[in-house]
Write a structure and sequence with these properties.
about 140 residues; mainly alpha; 5 helices; about 0% strand; globular
Length: about 140
């Protein structure tokens, strides 16, 4: 490998695979967190009045992890936000088809906002520090 090697462009296929991988990972992590929360509620660790807050937290943490996983191969804040948007679409599809839920109730909008916030946070965390132009020229 030479120092003057050009940066390989990310293809749309790589980006799409990264977004889908992040969304599926976010869905699995969110489901596992919700399973742990339901066990905690049934045991008596948490009360039933905090179910919505636990759901929002699980959605946020799942999308934070999914966004970080989505950015392993393809870097960029939009990859993480895209993974969160696909997660929202998956959640919307499952809610409408399986649970006959209304998609745009205030609770559903809160879940979508938490999911997108998790993706944005993941994008900002993985963005890293930018190097100055003088530092890049030295190499």
């Amino acid at each position: 490998m030479s120092k003057n090697r050009e940066k390989v462009q990310d293809t749309p296929l790589q980006t799409m695979i990264s977004v889908l991988t992040g969304a599926v990972c976010a869905l699995v992590i969110c489901a596992l967190l919700l399973l742990a929360a339901s066990v905690g509620i049934s045991v008596g660790v948490w009360g039933e009045d905090g179910v919505y807050r636990l759901t929002l937290a699980a959605c946020l943490v799942g999308n934070l992890a999914g966004g970080i996983i989505a950015q392993i191969r393809v870097r960029g804040i939009w990859v993480a936000v895209g993974a969160s948007a696909v997660f929202c679409l998956l959640l919307l599809t499952v809610g409408v088809c399986a649970l006959n839920a209304r998609p745009f109730e205030p609770s559903g909008l809160g879940l979508m906002a938490a999911a997108l916030l998790g993706g944005v946070l993941a994008g900002l965390l993985r963005r890293g520090k930018r190097r100055s132009a003088s530092h890049r020229r030295r190499r």
